[in-house]
Structure formats: structure tokens, C-alpha cells
Amino acid sequence: MSEQKNQNNAQQKNTQEPDLNQLRKVRREKLADLQNNGKDPFVITKYDQTHHSQEIKDNFDELEGKTVSIAGRMMSKRVMGKASFCNVQDLKGNIQSYVARDSVGEDAYKEFKKMDVGDVVGIVGEVFRTKTGEISIHAASVTLLSKSLQILPEKFHGLTNTDIRYRQRYVDLIMNPDVKDTFVKRSKILSAIRRYLDSEGFMEVETPMLVSNAGGAAARPFETHFNALDEDFKLRISLELYLKRLIVGGMERVYEIGRVFRNEGLDTRHNPEFTLMELYQAYTDYHGMMNLTENLYRTVAQEVLGTTKIVYNGVEMDLGKPFERITMVDAVKKYAGIDFNEIKTTEEAKALAKEKGIEFEDRHKKGDILSLFFEEYVEEHLIQPTFVMDHPIEISPLTKKKPENPEYTERFEFFMNGWEMANAYSELNDPIDQRERFRVQEELLAQGDEEANTTDEDFLNALEIGMPPTGGIGFGIDRMCMLLTDSAAIRDVLLFPTMKPLDK
């Protein structure tokens, strides 16, 4: 019985595939016919588009009866004898067009009937409202601007296969209006961030992506070879060390929004190349960065979404209320019931980790163990906007120590929805202390930690020139876009995410 079913499925598949191939063949034949008759759409170099679809709908009262020119992709077509309807989709939305033989001419109407869904067309005509009340364009001319030789997914079912959606984003954008809306919002988020920082006196700068020393974060870099110099280089993992050089140079408030590259795995929140924003402000500390972060998030949400209350996966988060501020020690005490102030040695911390089933490595110290407890017991609870402050020195190689307790640093991570959204410091500006931190990182590298930093002599030289007290922060722009657009995965907010090759 199952063998017969398989044969039927195979026969059905075989009958479906030639249909698609036949449809593609017909389209190529139509193109060849157009070209043979001197009407090749691909020789057209421009088209005068006067309006977009939504603009016509929004301004119908003043445009009714006037001639407009639109351009876009034909998404549907209904031929009814001497008159037809088609729907054209452009950047702003879609609009119906009424195409009548008596209005466009007999020959032009024959050509229109041969056009396919997916073709790019230009339509000139008068704006009117149909008997059913739909704002439309009464076409005087229809021009084929580009012939589609492929078949779009069937409109009713749309494009739902996520793998194809990510690989063929161009089709995804055509078929799924909400996807286009997500990326329009992403663009607005970036614009709003820039406007806010510019208004606060920050200067946008650009720093190298190709570096000899990839520092500023705990991550394994991608490596490449520069043929002209016969030297190995790395793709940057952070923006930090170059931006701090600019603070040394007297550029008191700087920021950069750009791609960084980390040789790590793929999951719903990680892509090997992603957009990071880092900013540095002289003469402030991590408390100043908290105030900036709170105001930035609140401003961007209000500007892009029109509200400071956002909903992600059904959970409401309120950016309008003051953000919670809690130390890492107090957070672990609150959610795990363990007070690390009472744990004095690394041995005690490791014994506690064993008791609680927390995995650690031999090289880990008390501060590392505290961080592991935080990840295990606390992060998932940090749904509302929360600043987790005062991280242990072991996990903060570029951060100022707390003067009253040098085991901890003036650092915070910003959390929402259980995710780390930003990481900020009172920046370390003591070159002697920084050299010692680099030495410890080099030891970790020698012990097999591929994410440890290496000593950056030029950066140390910059610190010896003298860097003022400085607050700095790094924002994950992609995660911010995920939250503000209610997107389930990082791939949903990256136009072209990294994908496995199809043959794998």
C-alpha cells in the first residue's frame, strides 16, 4: 500500500515540476517574441514615476480625476474581455488599475493580456474610485519595464519556507508585506539613533574592519591574508580600541555603527557578522552611560513605534518607567539565594558550583564563577529593562575597578527580555593596569582560551599619551531591532543572514 502511495506521490511530483518548467518556457518565449518585434523591455533605461500607491490613496480628494504615473510589480491580473484589472505593488503598498481596450488601444491591450504576474510595469492614467469604492487608476497606457522569467510563489499561500525566505530575500520582500515593514522599521531605528546621538553632541566616525590585532571583546576572530603586504590580518570583533584612541585625540564624544565579525555559531540570536554600535564620551562614567541608554531606547521607541510600551512575543515591556538598576552580586542573591559577598576564595566558589551542578573550567576564578551563576539563575528573569552593574574584574579586562572594592569593576550590562542588549564601562585609562590585564589575557590565550585578547602595543601607547575619564558602551543593534519589530530570530532583521551552502 505504502509503495503504491509513493509511486502516486512521485507521479504527482513529476506532473507538477514540468508545469513550472513549461510556465518558465512560455515566459522566455514571450520575451523572445517581444525582442523580435523591437519591444525588448530590457532596453528601457528610465520611467517617469510621479506617485506611489499609498500617496494616491492618502491624497485621493486632491488627485481624483488627475493623471498620475506609477511603477511597480504586477501582483495579480483579471482579464474580462474588453476590460481588465491588475494590481501593482510598489515601495509604499499596492493599488488597483483598470485597463480597458478602448482606453489603451487594441494593440496595447493585446500586449497587456500577454503580461504575467511578476512583471514590472509602468501605468499612466486618471485616479478614480470604482463602484465598489476602491481607489484605482484608469489606465491610459501600460508599459512593460521588466519581464519576470521566474514564477512567484502562489499568492494565497505566500512564501512561508523560512530557509527559502532567508536565501531569496528579494522574493520574501515581494510576497510578505510585513517583512518589508520590518526592514523599513530597522532603517528608521538606525536613523532615530543617529538623530538622538547627533543632538547630544556625538560625532559619527569610521574605524578599520581589517586589523592586525582584533581586540575589545571576548570572541574568536575570522582570519585572512593580505597579499600585497604578505601579512595575516583579522576581521574586527569590536569597535572599542580604535574609538578610545579618538578619545585620546580629543574627540570627546564619538560613535560608530558598523559590522563586526565573530567566528562563532549560528542561532536565533547570533550571526557571525552583525551590527554593533559603540560610543564613547569623555568626562563621564558608567552611570552616565546608563542615563544615555535609558533616554536613547525611550526616544527611539517613541519615534519609530509611537509608544514606549513594546510587546515582544506577547510580553509587554515598558520603556517609559525608570529602568531597574541592580548589582550582579545582588541579582544572584535575589534569584539564586546565594550571597557572593560571603564567599571569600576561588576554592569556596568552585565548591559551591560543584554543589549546584554549575560547570566551570580549572582556570576559572571566583569572579568567573559568579558570572556563571548569574547566567544560570538570573538572566531569564530580566524581562523588564534592567541594568546589571558591578561585574567581577576577571570578566572585565578593559574596565575601571571600583575604588572601594577592586574585585569588581564599574561595568553594567543592559538586559531586556532575558537578553543582553548592551555592555558598558567606566573605561580603564590607566596604561600600567591595562598592560597587566593584557598579560593575564595572554596567559589565558596560552591556556587554550581562543576568545582571549592579545596585547595591543599601539593602544597602550595611546593610553600612555593620556585618556581622560571616559564612559563607553556597545549596543547590539540587531537585538534592538528584534525587540522593536517583534521578530523571533536575528535572521528576521538581517536582510541577508549567513546561511549554510545549499549542498550542505
From TrEMBL:
The keyword Transmembrane does not apply. It comes from the Bacteria. The gene is lysS. Residues 186-501 form the Aminoacyl-transfer RNA synthetases class-II family profile domain. It is found in: Cytoplasm. It holds the Pfam family tRNA_anti-codon. One of its GO terms (molecular function) is lysine-tRNA ligase activity. Residues 1-14 have a biased composition (Low complexity). Mg(2+) 1 binds at residues 413, 420. Belongs to the class-II aminoacyl-tRNA synthetase family. Homodimer. HAMAP family: Lys_tRNA_synth_class2. Mg(2+) 2 binds at residue 420. It is an enzyme of class 6 (ligase). Keywords: Aminoacyl-tRNA synthetase, ATP-binding, Cytoplasm, Ligase, Magnesium, Metal-binding, Nucleotide-binding, Protein biosynthesis. The keyword Chloroplast does not apply. Residues 1-23 are annotated as: Disordered. Its cofactor is Mg(2+). Binds 3 Mg(2+) ions per subunit. InterPro entries: Aa-tRNA-synt_II (IPR004364), aa-tRNA-synth_II (IPR006195), Lys-tRNA-ligase_II (IPR002313), Lys-tRNA-ligase_II_N (IPR044136), Lys-tRNA-synth_II_C (IPR018149), NA-bd_OB_tRNA (IPR004365). It catalyses: tRNA(Lys) + L-lysine + ATP = L-lysyl-tRNA(Lys) + AMP + diphosphate. It comes from Faecalicatena faecalis. Its EC number is 6.1.1.6. This is Lysine--tRNA ligase.
